[in-house]
């Protein structure tokens, strides 16, 4: 059976990868029949109604999924397809309460026109009560209008889809985790919607372990914990984790959302001198390898709003004094170790190497990176012999236009 | 910091990575607190293959918990053993080091734990 996904028309390049990740996560056999970045309508083939509901229940970029009864370039085509293909379904909905609605993308119609169109479906023979809220079944006619249709005086949409509503996505979650209402954020906290999409791409879920080596105020771990994962994180600046040690802390954010069960552990550390236990790189395929994480998820500092720093001194010969002072002072509880600037490209390699050493087989690395440097030269997506690229995505709405490439650990 | 997290962490000094003595880190002057966390059997089963059992035995003993069996349970054994689930849950998920130090058995470096957050930053001469 074919189903219609009604996407939100935002972060378009992330929509299909998110659905594909969710298909993997839910064990649903998904075949995409038609999809375009310019349209919020996507036709997919799925084994069952139940699979359709499960596929999108935690999708951030999907509004709803529908059993597709018919589609076509005009209403006449839709009606003849409904009559030709779905007659056997009509009796099932003869007596239940129902609702009929029209969803016009990039267009609108007056209520008279809407009523006329809805009444043109009267041959379906539904006799149950019409209920606007909480109807047993909801039938939706989708209209795909050309851009700017009303101003250009275009009278009819380009395309129609007609289907029965099955279930909604998780469009409420970005509101729940909205940064505007979060107790503790910083200038670089990741937008809730994008953090949730990243968590979906990373296949975060119950029983999974996720690690963010640039945790900041915890946006990614919170999004992953929302989906049931146990989360870990570190930051070279411990103050970002500790906050004001009272109400505004990373832990308080987990508390605010009732997600404390998903808070594994946070610590202060530098990824180039990481304390995380790692195993030697090898292909073994036995599944038991001492590797720890199901996903590494992060938004490393690119050096725009935050300088990228790691432990060490910039010029060891000139800074001999600094190092000697450190040698004497480092046991002092207030000692702050010196840091030096680090190249973003070297950090990318560090992230990939770390992930290859700590991800379980088929574990995922999902992170944000700028597509170009200050001189507008393209930064290529890095590669690693033990990691396979699942998708590289572009999102121009994010600061500095970042794709989020995603890797999976080769077994 | 949970005992579970401690099982994932070793000395941050690069020259210690090859030394067997650098893992697990040894708690020193550790203040323990216990958080109420809901038992999640599936999570514990998933954790099993990622835990270094020998290191966990050492940590359990050092923190004054009853000695763990020499061999880790299999996933099936763990699922069937309510007491083992409870014990591991208490040790791994509920017990936290709130203040104290973590000491590397190889180089002797001490990492401070404050407000439950351990600090693994190193001075320049150890980087």
Automatic annotation (TrEMBL), chain A:
UniProt cross-references to Pfam families, sorted A to Z: Tmrp11_N (PF25904)
| Region (Disordered) location | 392-411
Q: Which organism is it from?
A: Humicola insolens (Soft-rot fungus)
What is the protein name given in its UniProt record? tRNA (guanine(10)-N(2))-methyltransferase
What keywords does the record list, in alphabetical order?
A: Cytoplasm, Methyltransferase, RNA-binding, S-adenosyl-L-methionine, Transferase, tRNA processing, tRNA-binding
Where in or outside the cell? Answer: Cytoplasm
Recorded hits in PANTHER family, A to Z, give:
RNA METHYLASE-RELATED, TRNA (GUANINE(10)-N2)-METHYLTRANSFERASE HOMOLOG
- Top-level taxon of the source organism: Eukaryota
List, alphabetically, the SUPFAM superfamilies matched. S-adenosyl-L-methionine-dependent methyltransferases
Residue intervals of the tRNA (guanine(10)-N(2))-methyltransferase TRMT11 N-terminal domain: 1-171
Q: Where is the signal peptide?
A: none
What family is this protein classified in? Answer: Belongs to the class I-like SAM-binding methyltransferase superfamily. TRM11 methyltransferase family.
Documented EC number(s)? 2.1.1.214
Give the matching InterPro entries: DNA_methylase_N6_adenine_CS (IPR002052), SAM-dependent_MTases_sf (IPR029063), TRMT11 (IPR016691), TRMT11_N (IPR059073)
UniProtKB/TrEMBL annotation, chain B:
InterPro entries, alphabetized: Trm112 (IPR039127), Trm112-like (IPR005651)
Concerning Pfam families, the annotation shows: Trm112p (PF03966)
PANTHER family registered for this protein in UniProt: MULTIFUNCTIONAL METHYLTRANSFERASE SUBUNIT TRM112-LIKE PROTEIN (PTHR12773:SF0), UPF0315 PROTEIN-RELATED (PTHR12773)
Q: Which family does it belong to?
A: Belongs to the TRM112 family.
Give the protein's recorded name: Uncharacterized protein
Biological source species: Humicola insolens (Soft-rot fungus)
